[in-house]
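Structure ticket #2291
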Amino acid sequence: MCLEGLIGLLELNCFTVEVSVGNHGEGGSDHGGWSRWSCHNQDEQSASQCSGSNRGGKAKVIEESTLARVIFIFLAGLKEKYDEAMRRNDVKAIVVTGNGGRFSGGFDINVLQEVQQTGNLSHLGRVSVDLMINTIEDAKKPSVAAIQGLALGGGLELAMSCHARISTPKAQLGLPELQLGIIPGFGGTQRLPRLVGLQKAVEIMLLSKSIMSEEGSKLGLIDAVVSPGELMTTARMWALDIAERRRPWIISLKRTDKLESLGEAREILKFARAQAKKTAPNLPHPQLCLDVIEEGIVAGGLAGVLKEEKGFNDIILSETAKGLVHFFFSQRATTKVPGVTDLGLKPRQIKKVAVLGGGLMGSGIATSLVLSNIPVVLKEVNAGFLQQGINRISANLKSRVKKGSMTQEKFEKTMSLITGAVDYAEFRNVDMVIEAVIEKISLKQEIFSDLEKICPAHCILATNTSTIDLNLIGAKTHVQDRIVGAHFFSPAHVMPLLEIVRTEKTSPQIIVDLINVGKNIKKVPIVVGNCTGFAVNRMFFPYTQSAHMLAVLGVDIYRIDKVITSFGMPMGPFRLQDLVGYEVSIEVGKQFVTAFGDRTFKTPLTELMIENKRAGEKNGKGYYIYDEKRRASPAPEVKEIIEQARKNSKIMPDGKPIVVTDREILEMIFFPVVNETCRVLDEGIAIKASDLDVSSVLGMGFPAYRGGIIFWGDSIGAGHIYSSLKKWSESYGGLFKPSAYLEERAARGIPLSAPVAARNFGSRL
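Resolution: structure written out below.
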């Protein structure tokens, strides 16, 4: 069950309400005059005003639009128009549709964030009862939703409160609220099961899974799928047919024919609860959603709506919802880079990319590019390595074919975008090069010297290095304005983050171009400065080091991993090191010891593991042992190696293991990460705290529902983090030494996420 990810649009699109007026056609059918009503804001105070004009004596038009921040003024306007339609004797039926080719993207998330920040629930109103039931569903005149483009969240809930739904092809339908830590709040938990059945409704809601209108038609959610040109005509006729009782007048909330039997329904809900608890044990809203659904099945639709309304209001103010809403907005802010994206520069078209290196990273990067129809030249040192690289790309794509997400025809077409090379001949007409060779400075310097001579003058020269200073890589070139970091995370064709690393000399145009490439290949681009480890690896180097320190202080490594995974990380630090590999850990560790020697902990444990011929997943023997399916289980024999590391380190107080709670383990591992993140902000490596929140989630698997590393730190409080680190630093050394930034924020009571005052950036340690 995937509970992370994104909702569609931010705004509830402006609705047009069409009502039939009293021109009767042949046979008494009222297909004649129709009025179009909507609402608009006329001033900055957003006062809802109405005006009208006549068209040929038949149609009265009242226009209405709204800013996102006044969504409920708009909804009040919609209710007002409905009330007027009910009063008028010449109105027979109503059609609700959207503007701009979209029905509605759903509830305005800006309002959601405002409620969370203020705690003022009055912004939410009682939409589910006052509008959806009393005004629309229980009205004495029928409504039909005319859907085009999409109907998501509150938009679909509005459509379901209508008495029929007509859609154009390929319209997107869904209730993605759970992605934001909330539940549907306008009656969706009750109407969707009654329209498509409980099994499918639970799947759509808990997975935040959208469906197309064609599938919606088969399920019973959509009554008819028609062409865009026929949409309004069909919807009008359908509405009038309901009014004249030529079609059934169906109130979704009162339907029971699609619901499973009570016993079967309870089994479905029981299974869903177990799955949600297994896959998202720290999240309260999936369980709340299921409770609300069950209430409606057992006690009736209205009882379900009332429970939904209360649950919706409660869950909005939960820490989970606050974290996910913060993460939602933070992701959308990553491409706003002061001094770069505000200069009016337009991204240049990248028609062909060369990738140097066909290993795991290089082949993954190439896969990401060709999946977005960008031709790739893959270069290796010889034909044998080149074929291995192409085979890796092929395997990446074939896995999609096997899963059914790619056809064989598409596979062959995508593979045709790859050109293999063992020299630089094909590099003379590429727009970007991404170097993805081993982390060896001299080799990278040689490569970039060659690229400067061979590639065209406009070509972006990017490196996928994860830790090496870009100034070192480009030291022997004269084109440092074109050199940039394009740091992908492994596996590159799966992980969503792209860390764009700039030096003081990198051209803003290059950064704009790479941001656009990132978006085109469906990555979230984060622009950061140049330093050892850049942002993500720099922030998280204390993560593993703190875990190793705890291990040699006497804390059980499997307990450490369990505490961290219970917190919400995909795996603990020792399981992660097994995955990454010990040689890589040692090499990366050397970089950090060189750069930040005063606050690093050099563990003897990794080298001892290598000496004992343990290599993690690579040979199936690490801190864990692995079966043929890569399933991990604790390795009892590691205990002796850990004991040797403890003896070598000689840091256990009085030679005895320290006694710590699970909470202290969590804090001793993550507070140093927060601390280092503060330094990254203080040095200007990152532009804003929210970028680092996104980086921590997408780059290191920090739980999105905790908002990101800085957002979580603010929820704990700078004062507690500072005092804890200060205490530990006095006992265990520089790894825990509080940064000047953290100390200042704690002393002044300023959130860690508050913008850094403009100054000449540099580390204050």
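Closing remark: The CA atoms of residues 71 and 108 lie 7 Å apart.
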